[in-house]
Amino acid sequence: MRIDELPRSDRIEDRRGGGSAGFPTGRTGGLGLGTIAILFVVGWALGINPLDLIGVLTGQNGSPEQSAPAPPSRTETPSDQMGQFTSAVLGSTEVQWKEIFAQAGKTYEPPTLVMFSGATRSGCGFAQSAMGPFYCPLDRKVYLDTSFFEDLQRRFHGCDVGSKSCEFSQAYVITHEIGHHVQNLLGILPQVQEAQRGMDQVEANHLQVRVELQADCFAGIWAHRAEEKWRIMEPGDVEAAIQTASAIGDDRLQRRSQGYVVPDAFTHGSSEQRTRWLMTGLKSGELASCDTFQSARF
To answer: Does one domain contain both 85 and 206?
Structure first.
């Protein structure tokens, strides 16, 4: 993936190297990292936000009022290689989504991306690397422990270890989370959350899958438009992104963790679904192609 021509963003809070942002190293608000990992798997399998489970055990409910404030930090453009890469991907999303929103007569308000090591606080509660990257709509920030990228390669085989094409897979992960921010600005996330309150868990999970698949499609839109504008793609990039989308499908993760698949517990979509919607956005580059909520086949 070529990033030389991509604009850099300074909307990054670099909390790396600061321990666990107020929590003792190796433990999290009284919970060991092993416990955190178990809660993540349980929450994922049941379709429950792991932040909520952790909040119950630590006495935090994840709301901005009762969660401890995040450590003070400032936005900047990190100078290290991973920081520069993240800044380039984030900067390119700012350009692309600003143009898309402007075409619809709207104003795009870019999010802040928080890079952290191990653990930190978010507007949605506690953030820990075992949860993977996520978007918090309450503070409009994306949280990213970049060690997830190593897990993506070595644990989940999301791309070939040492391959330069892994960068495009990493960009897909980041732009998927930016896709959730776009959904929030468009009012999609609040509508979904309101609808889920009146649903049982299976129905709520099915709706959440549509949310995640649309974010995959939005990531594809970014790739399509970034390629048109900056010619970022190199041989193997698309194949690596497909490999990543397949590796983090619910069916593959469930089979890996428990040996069998429970479709009603899916919260992100199957490998086939995630791959298909990523490619839908990549091929079209248009918002209209990403309406997973109206599609009979999602």
So the answer is: no
